[in-house]
Predict the structure.
Amino acid sequence: MKENHAYEVKEQVSNTFLKTVSAFANYGGGTIQFGIADDGRAVGVSDPKAACLDIENRINDSIRPVPPFQLFIDDRSQIITLKVEDGLFKPYYYKAKAYKRNDTATIEVDRVELNRLILAGENRSFDALPARNQRLSFSVLENKMKALLSISELNQDILKTIGLVDANGQYNNAAALLADCNDFPGVDCARFGETIDIIRDRETFDRESVLKQYDDALELYRKYYQYDVIDGSVRKTVQQIPEKAYREALANALVHRTWDTRAQIRVSMYDDRVEIVSPGGLPEGMTQDEYLRGQVSLLRNPVIGNVFFRLHLIESFGTGVRRMNQAYNGSETKPIYSFSPNTITVTLPVVQTVEHMTPDERQLYQVLSTVGKSSSVIAAQSGFSKNKTLQLLKALMRRGIVRKIGNGRGTKYIAQKDDGLTDD
């Protein structure tokens, strides 16, 4: 077994393992095995019982507070296994420093990470800490609550009920984020052209309530990914990207991001997809599999999450990914989720309903691109007559697969290509 973020090997017992004990106790637990060489060979430990006592004494003497751990001896291989559990009383220090794992290395945490560990040890969240600015107004929040919850006014009792005011009457960071004006980073939206060098539109929503940020970013989505088509007497709104999925991704980014860093939420809009990048990575204690399956809901900002839930901006906690996936039922394309230590990226592709195309429609679709083409060019490249090309384009437009841009002689047609499209 190779070393990773939760597993380390040592050939002998020395103080070098103590930094890793701190890291495992601070972040999710892990295993250290003694008696294994760097090349993976099992060499064993001479007198493992004495070595276990030595390991126990080193931990008890050097790690503060002492984390929960267990020691096991394999009598046949003489290998010692040390299992360190995820501690409840973080941070766990070795020589007055707290550590974390970075892949297979153990490194000291920075000041921001240390503050988060202290909060975790106190079972507190950043959004519940007292706000620096105590002069706040809440007209955006009040209007939302009046419309959705039928309150007559937003008074101090209601602010206490939804967790924005503590027992001493102080506003917390959640209140500051929901206030009409704040100093936290916002949402940076960019609409790109054919390449990332072409920026068609750029809007940054900050210094305003996170509820206003949500509404503003939603309106920009509607501007570029929704349009009306008229079929006879019926007007239909086409959603190139499901609004339900976009709402969930945007709300999750606002609720689950880390607010103690100055990074903005980035919303990158392309012809064939939207990418929403949320600062902070996965909450500690949550695996990628648990995130994707919606099995565990660990709210990084529970106060903000509670307000978003009350306002029906998010559903039951932990169901966001499943709801995004459900919005793509019947589509060839699906949402994509990617993770790094400091970010979560949700990619929402344009819906593709290729499975419902006739052979002629598929043949025409293959020649379309995200760059507009005239019907004459499409006819020449597809091999169809001009009349047949126009008929096929009309049928595809009714289903939202093709979009017409421009007027008169400047009319062109575009499609959102699916790179996974096959001819079966």
